[in-house]
Design a protein that fits this description.
single chain, mainly alpha
């Protein structure tokens, strides 16, 4: 969950993050005056999250033997494996500010989950984490209204297209392509540990196209919105604080829409996996803090990149075998 009020001062940790093209560290909270558009957006996020929770609770209550369903979920291996995956992925995201989707999807594919089911699980779980993150960024003044609006509709359109593509194609057919994409994203994360960031001080261009591509690969590949969109915009010299906040706020809406598309197109909703990802993510904050305090950023990038590369290589080999 990327809830951050960013410290842009010239301290050693920020210097390390800047060299690697990663978000700055946090500083103390502040409560700025909200623009009316952002205020409406914040309430929209809260209402959509509340509506989603109410819908899920109502749907569960209407099922015969609802308590037995809950008991079966808690007793299933899928739930506890998803708890572990959610814990690891959210800890990675909390330490690096990105890579929740590609980390969790890589692990889920390794267990034999079809690409559509894996991506659906991740996006349904992310509705709540990205919603809380987006509201926090608005309250902390980390959102550029203009950048958010430029990303919003293209990102949603790309996410809908990506969700439709990955749900419409046979899982065995598309799995090699998804595994190859995640392998590439793992190499991308790994490369950030060894290359210097080039900064272009001009205004970011082609934001709509970037949002469209980012939304598509995020839904079709199970993750990548943050690594694709945030790192590209920050690399152009755009303000890191407002870039991260705006991208994360837009992520809630494209995640919400893509989750809805997945629920319409995927035959069976993976509720045990979704519940496990959410529960695991709730306990990730202390682990993320521990990782950040004990390991430097470059080491974290190497470890995360290697894990994703190894798992994706296994998934690709298994899919092609």
């Amino acid at each position: 969950m990327k809830i951050r009020d960013l410290d842009l001062s010239d301290n050693p940790r920020n210097a390390e993050h800047q060299a690697l093209g990663l978000p700055p560290v946090e500083k103390s909270l502040r409560l700025p005056t909200l623009h009316p558009v952002l205020r409406v957006t914040m309430w929209a996020v809260l209402l959509l999250m509340a509506g989603a929770m109410a819908w899920l609770a109502t749907r569960l209550a209407q099922q015969p033997g609802s308590w037995q369903i809950v008991s079966n979920v808690l007793a299933s291996e899928a739930f506890w494996y998803a708890v572990l995956v959610g814990l690891i992925a959210q800890a990675v995201d909390g330490a690096l500010g990105m890579a929740y989707g590609i980390t969790s999807t890589s692990f889920l594919l390794a267990t034999g989950s079809p690409p559509a089911v894996a991506s659906a699980s991740v996006h349904i779980a992310e509705v709540f984490t990205t919603g809380v993150s987006g509201v926090a960024h608005i309250k902390l003044g980390n959102v550029s209204r203009q950048l958010f609006l430029r990303l919003l509709l293209p990102g949603i359109a790309g996410a809908v297209l990506g969700a439709w593509v990955v749900s419409s194609i046979d899982g065995d057919t598309i799995k090699p392509f998804v595994a190859a994409y995640l392998l590439g994203m793992g190499l991308f994360v790994l490369s950030k540990a060894f290359r210097k960031r080039r900064v272009n001080q001009g205004e970011p261009r082609h934001v709509a196209k970037l949002g469209l591509v980012g939304g598509f690969v995020d839904a079709a590949g199970g993750g990548g919105w943050g690594p694709v969109v945030t790192t590209t915009l920050v690399g152009t010299g755009h303000d890191p604080r407002t870039t991260i906040g705006s991208v994360n706020l837009a992520e809630f809406f494209l995640t919400f829409v893509s989750a809805g598309v997945f629920m319409l197109l995927v035959d069976e909703a993976p509720w045990a996996t979704v519940a496990g990802l959410v529960v695991g993510g709730l306990f990730a904050a202390p682990l993320a803090a521990f990782m950040t305090s004990r390991l430097n950023t470059r080491t974290l990038l190497v470890l995360v990149g290697l894990v994703i590369v190894c798992i994706s290589t296994f998934n690709l080999w298994h899919a092609l075998a």
